[in-house]
Amino acid sequence: MDKQATLATRVKAGIAAHEVWMLDALKRLVEAKSFSGHEHAAQAVMRALLEELGFDVREIPVEPDKLKNHPLYSPVVHELHGCHNLLGRLRGTPDTGKSLMISGHVDVVPVGHVSLWSRAPFDTYILDGWFYGRGAGDMKGGLIAALTGLKALVDNGFKPMAPLWFNTVVEEECTGNGALATVEYLKAHDIRIDAMLDPEPFGENIMSGQVGTVWCQYHLTGRPAHAMEAHKGLNPIEAAMHIWRRLKEVEARWNPPHQTHAAFGDHPHPLNFNLGKIAGGEWASSVPTTCRVDFRFGIYPGVDPAAAKREVEAAIQAAVAELPEPPKCSITYEGFHAPGCVVDLDTEPMQLLKRCHEAVNGEVPDTYAVTGTTDVRLFQLGAGIPSTCYGPKAQRIHALDECVEIASLQRVAEVYALYIAEWCGVTHA
Ligand SMILES: [Zn+2]
What we know:
The chain is of the alpha+beta class. It contains eleven helices and 20 strands. It folds into two domains: 296 residues, 3-Layer(aba) Sandwich (Aminopeptidase), CATH 3.40.630.10; 127 residues, Alpha-Beta Plaits, CATH 3.30.70.360. The protein has a six-stranded mixed sheet, sandwiched between helices. The protein is elongated.
């Protein structure tokens, strides 16, 4: 057997042998509940895992005050009291060679109504080869898969011959300011990263691009009245519904039947306007006082979020002006202010990823243009690092009964192990 075949065989066996370790690590990480802004418990689990695998770990504080003038900054949603990323470097790796960073987020999205889940969202369980729990798919499974791949290499005596970094960030699901803090840290400390992989759960496909995402809120103030004299009042919830219908017309305009953006060529509807939250009113017998609508819209790579915001604002103001009596309206932006980006799949790091997937799966990977956003934009647009996402198969992320496929975690672990070995080079003890 040649050297590569030996390494691949040993890695595959190592990953199979580490199944219990992998599932136990994933259980600990998922059960460390970590909504955006409250990631401490999950970061503590990650720190222990990274140190177990031989990383020197430092903390990168995520401080909005220091980031807020950066063009890729997104206005904060949560108070970040002492939230931090973890940046680990594998001990003993030389300063020379091609460096690699694996980066992912530890925050998870809200669970919605717990009673609709088959079991409690943070009580993990395994059923028919799938591992369940909020965050198991998005994206704690991917983080653990990448670590398992590295563990299989290291435990077999293979040692990376270039800097290997593992970064876990906070605040991915609503702003991306966690990844932005790491990007700024890398620059300030002159740390060069030659490729970055993010194990987001995109079904073992290589991400070819992503849309931009903006979070927006409109706030309406009406005039309360007794319901028996509703004509004397001004109903802000009804006004909000009218505005939303007009915004859906903007969405339709932005997604023409034969849209032509190269990266999203075969996608029927890449740019979604999602009404995510509505709050207003007091009770059934009063015309309400206020209404607040939180929504999210997508934009194509190359579109300036600021220009898209202006178009959306104009649509909201025009809709308000159409009303017989316009309510008081203000518009705010909390959360994502994220441009889209496209991944150049012809570059060396992406070609290698393709080959590693092929070596493990016996077929070329599909590519996937994502109609949401990921941290890749910060690394690519903020630091010029060739970056993409490659991670396991998951189901119902951001929904109920989220889960990740265990066999997929193992294949992804194998791909990461081969990737590290090829990209960084390895010596064998
Ligand atoms: Zn994610």
